[in-house]
Amino acid sequence: MRFPLAFPYETPRLRLVPVEDRHADVIWQWSRDPRFNEHVLWRQPQIPLQAKLFIDAAIAAWQAGIGFNYFAECKQTGATLARVEARLSRRRPGVAEVGMLIAPEVWSRGYATELTYFGLWFCFENLEREAVAIDASARNVASNRLLAKLGLHLLGEQDFPLAEGGVARLNRYVLTRDEFQVRLMAVLHGPGYRIPHEPVAPAATGMTTSETAAAQ
Predict the structure, then answer these.
(1) What is the pLDDT of residues 142-171, one digit of tens each?
(2) 7 lies in a domain?
(3) Beta strand 67-74 pairing with 14-18
(4) Which of 73, 86, 88 is nearest to 22 (CA)?
């Protein structure tokens, strides 16, 4: 881990804050909208406790140094609009993955673009992975279009088993660290983004020694 996890990260319109218990209420609220659940690979929470368990798992992954969830707040209103996760791949050494949730009421406003840039930066520059994979539902036209526009390569399709039965067809996109640095890094150094530029000692990253080792 090269940079502080609690750094005040920002995109042009969003402030990113580490996952907290209070975000269970946000997940519960989002999951009440059927549109939100259409492209999310989970069993829709039926009671608030299930949303809390989702957040508990995210906090546990953070503490273990294997996954880092940030919730995105609007700089103007303070409303929580999205969540972005950067995580180490369980199956592929050297690879990280980015996942995202956007509140349905702010779809198609470009927030996914800002958070994809941040997620890629975090995986390449903070987790120091050599490749990043992002999955998109084959039915989610907007997500597929965004990933292709940013230069990610379509690796192939896979069927993901759903908790309630059946499968979801996913498109897997990948990008290498070199491609990111050449094509996209300049955006992160442009107006509106706030990221650290100087690596810090492990003790200042917000992780314990064991957590730092797990992320390497």
Answers:
(1) 999 999 999 999 999 988 776 667 788 899
(2) no
(3) antiparallel
(4) 73
